[in-house]
Specification:
The protein is built from 4 helices and no strands. By secondary structure, the chain is mostly helical. The longest helix is centred in the last third of the chain and has 42 residues. The protein is extended and about 60 Å long. The N and C termini lie far apart (63 Å).
Length: 130
């Protein structure tokens, strides 16, 4: 189904996109890890008064992790529709997609360490000397 390039067509595109997003969040267990981790990172950034540059990197990393998870979920769903029997090609594709999520998640943890390191220790030093 192709949506027309009209306001109604765009509304429909957004409805479908949000439908897919909410379905993935409800059905994919990994979101029960990724979303609380994102909320914790955002809370920490608020408490540490991140500057706009740190916010941009943080939001970008959260977006990349969630996007990778959505793509992985889409590939898993498509693989189930194509072939429910064991297929080593599909298994390799799914394992590789999972590896992409793992890679960006580990990268996000490392980047988060760099983002939070200085603001945290600055806050800690002020707290301890007060």
């Amino acid at each position: 189904m192709k949506n027309e390039m009209t306001p109604q067509g765009w509304v429909r595109k957004f409805q479908l996109a949000f439908s897919g997003l909410f379905w993935a969040i409800r059905t994919e267990g990994s979101f029960s890890v990724h979303l609380p981790a994102a909320a914790l990172a955002i809370s920490g950034a608020v408490l540490l008064s991140f500057d706009p540059g740190r916010w941009a990197v943080l939001v970008g990393m959260i977006g990349m992790v969630l996007t990778a998870e959505l793509l992985n979920t889409a590939l898993e769903t498509l693989a189930q529709a194509v072939d429910e029997d064991h297929n080593h090609h599909i298994k390799r594709a799914l394992d590789t997609a999972s590896a992409a999520v793992l890679t960006i998640s580990m990268t996000a943890v490392v980047v988060g360490g760099f983002l939070f390191w200085h603001p945290f220790w600055t806050w800690w030093a002020r707290t301890m000397t007060s």
